[in-house]
């Protein structure tokens, strides 16, 4: 029923419920009239970005690594949308982001469905974007920058978040050369709507999104292993942040030392506002509370049997694998985990939830690392 330009209907209001139903059906509001009545669109074709197709140039990667900008999530949504509304666009006398739009999307944000990615320089907001999160799709609405590359840095953060949380597509709505340069492509409406139809509403990450996403690998080989895994996840959710993704539980036979049972491993993505070292501190506390005893002298002991006691006695082991796309190299913490690419029991759980996440040092996806891994240990699905 859409017009050639994608126009479908007008009216209906812009309540939280109406907006959510519209996005779930592939509609978005674009302009409203002087009475605040919105006009709803569903263009064909639709401009979308598959997160793994994002083109991050060397210069942009260098800018991100430089530390010049700090990127946050959901800390100043209203400021971002107001800045987007203030952008002067060629051929337009006013923004479609009217006061009515701003208030409606702020209510959607307060309800936990609209989100912003924000770039700061020296504590000042200089770029960002906002959109609506479904379960397999992040619907981007608008972005702005007052400093070169600031919006691109926010965009890269959004893509990183999408990959770490299993989003299939990022909806960019309409074609622009800039979006095409970042890897976005046109998709026909039928295929786009099919992706929306296949979404699981239970997967929606509702509420405030957090600044950081950490990938943890949980391992246990003693006692009631499944109970320990559940206790660890409950403690992580309480002390570190929201557990937003979890792999199946995998079983691996003991390797390299004597152990009571085979290992159970599970990978999870946790959203947090803690920094990496704070996460490490909390993880070590949880390990200890669940019975792990670390032999601090083990690294300097030559007797292999004594050293192995340190590794075999691990009712619960929590490893930090990734922290956003950061590279951290300190005496107490190395991220990405320096041996993750050598062990199939690490890569298999990661493959099931973040196959397209790019190792920030090796610049290869988890999928590629898994395919190249020479480790031949058997990893079986346990639960």
Task: Please characterize this protein's 3D structure.
- There is one protein chain.
- By secondary structure, the chain is α+β, with helices and mostly antiparallel strands.
- The chain folds into two domains: 7-203, 3-Layer(aba) Sandwich (Aminopeptidase), CATH 3.40.630; 212-381, 7,8-Dihydro-6-hydroxymethylpterin-pyrophosphokinase HPPK (Alpha-Beta Plaits).
- The chain is 32% helix and 26% strand.
- The chain is built from twelve helices and 18 strands.
- The chain has helices at 16-24, 58-66, 77-86, 99-110, 150-164, 177-181, 189-197, 225-239, 276-289, 304-312, 344-353, 366-372, and strands spanning 7-10, 28-32, 38-41, 46-49, 70-73, 114-121, 124-133, 137-145, 169-173, 185-187, 212-220, 242-246, 250-252, 263-272, 317-323, 328-330, 333-335, 379-381.
- The strands form four sheets. A seven-stranded mixed β-sheet has the order 5-6-7-8-9-4-10, sandwiched between helices.
- Helix 3 (77-86) runs antiparallel to helix 4 (99-110) and helix 8 (225-239) packs antiparallel against helix 9.
- The longest helix has 15 residues, at 150-164.
- The chain starts with 6 loop residues before the first strand and ends with a strand.
What is this entry, summarized?
The protein is built from twelve helices and 18 strands.
Number of helices: 12
Counting DSSP E segments of at least 2 residues, the number of strands comes to: 18
- CATH level-1 class of the largest domain: Alpha Beta
Name given to the CATH architecture of the largest domain: 3-Layer(aba) Sandwich
Helix content: 25-40%
């Amino acid at each position: 029923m859409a017009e050639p330009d994608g126009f479908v209907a007008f009216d209906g209001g812009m309540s939280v419920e109406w907006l959510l139903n519209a996005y779930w059906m592939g509609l978005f509001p674009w302009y409203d009239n002087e009475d605040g009545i919105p006009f709803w669109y569903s263009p064909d074709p639709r401009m979308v970005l598959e997160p793994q197709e994002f083109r991050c140039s060397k210069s942009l990667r260098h800018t991100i690594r430089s530390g010049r900008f700090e990127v946050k999530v959901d800390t100043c949504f209203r400021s971002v949308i107001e800045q987007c509304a203030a952008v002067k666009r060629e051929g337009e006398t006013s923004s479609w982001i009217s006061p009515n739009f701003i208030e409606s999307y702020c209510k959607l944000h307060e309800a936990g469905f609209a989100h912003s990615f924000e770039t700061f320089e020296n504590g000042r907001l200089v770029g960002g974007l906002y959109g609506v999160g479904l379960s397999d799709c992040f619907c981007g609405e608008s972005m702005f920058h007052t400093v070169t590359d600031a919006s691109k840095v926010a965009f890269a953060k959004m893509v990183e978040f999408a990959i770490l949380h299993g989003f299939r597509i990022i909806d960019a709505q309409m074609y622009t050369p800039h979006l095409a340069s970042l890897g976005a492509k046109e998709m026909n409406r039928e295929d786009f709507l099919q992706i929306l139809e296949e979404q699981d509403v239970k997967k929606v990450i509702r509420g405030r999104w957090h600044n950081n996403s950490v990938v943890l690998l949980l391992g246990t080989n003693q006692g009631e292993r499944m109970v320990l895994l559940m206790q660890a996840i409950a403690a992580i959710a309480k002390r570190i942040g929201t557990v937003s993704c979890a792999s199946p539980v995998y079983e691996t036979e003991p390797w390299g030392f004597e152990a009571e049972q085979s290992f159970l491993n599970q990978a999870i993505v946790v959203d947090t506002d803690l920094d990496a070292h704070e996460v490490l501190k909390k993880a070590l506390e949880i390990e200890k509370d669940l019975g792990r005893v670390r032999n601090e002298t083990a690294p300097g002991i030559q007797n292999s049997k004594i050293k192995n006691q340190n590794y075999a006695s691990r009712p619960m082991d929590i490893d930090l694998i990734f922290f956003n796309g950061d590279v951290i190299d300190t005496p107490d913490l190395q991220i990405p985990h320096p041996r993750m690419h050598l062990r199939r029991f690490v890569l298999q759980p990661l493959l099931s939830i973040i196959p397209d996440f790019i190792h920030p040092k090796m610049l290869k996806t988890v999928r590629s690392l898994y395919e190249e891994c020479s480790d031949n240990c058997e990893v079986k699905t346990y639960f």
